[in-house]
Amino acid sequence: MNSRKIKKTAILNMSEKLAISILVLFHLTGFLLLNFSSGLVYSIALDFVPINIILSTLLVVKFQAEFNARFFGFMAFTFLSGLAAEIIGVNTGWIFGNYSYGEVLGLKIFSTPLLIGLNWFLVAYCTISIIDYLPTNSWIKYLTGIFLLVLLDYFIEPTAIRLGFWNWENGNIPVRNYYGWAAVSALILAYGFLFPFSRKNKVAAITFLLQLTFFMLQSIF
Prior knowledge:
Number of strands: 4
Structural class: mainly alpha
Oligomer: single chain
Strand order of the largest sheet: 1-4
Shape: globular
Largest sheet: 2 strands, antiparallel
Distance between the termini: 47 Å
């Protein structure tokens, strides 16, 4: 009986399949256009990046099991702490090293795109969803989550530089950046574990894998 229940809960329903299909389409289209187009089409693809982040976030959040104070608290904390870390990083060189944002990610506050706070929420939420499926204790999940977020950033960096999301001083990504990502990730995930909410979201978990695959392939091409 238990094995049947486990098998049943692992199956995606129709709306989850549709959402994942849309997300796959987003990522596949973005990959093809950003790597194999030029001119106006390439510019349109770059302009679509902020829309992709917003739409991906909306699709993922749609499948949040329960909308309560703890979920919205995690969303607000992640957005604000991620944005604050980036503002400090850009304007002081602390945390991540010396870097500056380009124009691709849109409207800025203190030289930092507001959208970067939403992106921190998206990647953190997808990460905390996928690690919640691990059959292990909270400490292993927590450490795995930090590792996954740093791994994701490792593959994001070359693509972000190439596409003009941001640029590093002298063109070199400092090791401090990954320590900084680990520290901010640790803070955000700690909040999620200290104030737990229902977060087993299959669409979010698969979205993390989609993002990781997307940026891994981008780093190859």
